[in-house]
Amino acid sequence: MRLWTLHPRYLDRPGLTGAWREALLAQAVLAGRTRGYRSHPQLERFRAQSRPLESVGAFLTGLAEEAAARGYRFDRTRIDQPAGLGPGGGLAEHLRIDATTGQRDHEWRHLRAKLADRSPEVLRRWEAEHVPELHPMFRLCPGPVAAWERL
After folding, report:
1. Which helix (H) or strand (E) holds 45?
2. CA-to-CA distance for 96 and 98, rounded, in angstroms?
3. Which parts of the chain are beta strand (E)?
4. What one-character DSSP code corresponds to residue 148?
5. Domain segments of the chain: what residues?
6. Which InterPro entries did the record assign (predicted)?
7. CB atoms within 10 A of CB 79
8. What CA–CA distance (Å, rounded) separates 93 from 96?
9. 83-131 pLDDT, tens per residue?
10. Which of 63, 126, 129, 135 is the most exposed place for a label (fewest CB within 10 A)?
């Protein structure tokens, strides 16, 4: 399971659809609908939130937004708790999760390696991108790779 901190725009088609499926699985785990993957480290940052299901809903909403921008139709009715919007129309602040520069950089290297094997044309599109953006629900802060990440 990989729940990317990076903005979903960087994902190729298999990466975006895979992220959707894995985030739906994460939602099922957090909702207690499945017994598998309960101790998966990628879930730690969502479990640490005051409203884990709403947090994973915000993650899924970001993926669905990117899918729509590409002309795909992800079934948003599968999101148990869609992201709440704040007064300015953006993501409600209580749903934002801190993500470190170390985690961002680790994931960027990891994604670039995946794209080199699977979708070199997508990798070429992002060649000049040295500092990638994060998924809209994450807030960048300085720090090392996350403790839950398995290196």
Report:
1. helix 44-47
2. 7
3. 97-100, 138-141
4. T
5. 8-141
6. Pyr-dimer_DNA_glycosylase
7. 21
8. 5
9. 765 556 567 777 899 999 999 999 999 999 999 999 999 999 999 999 9
10. 129
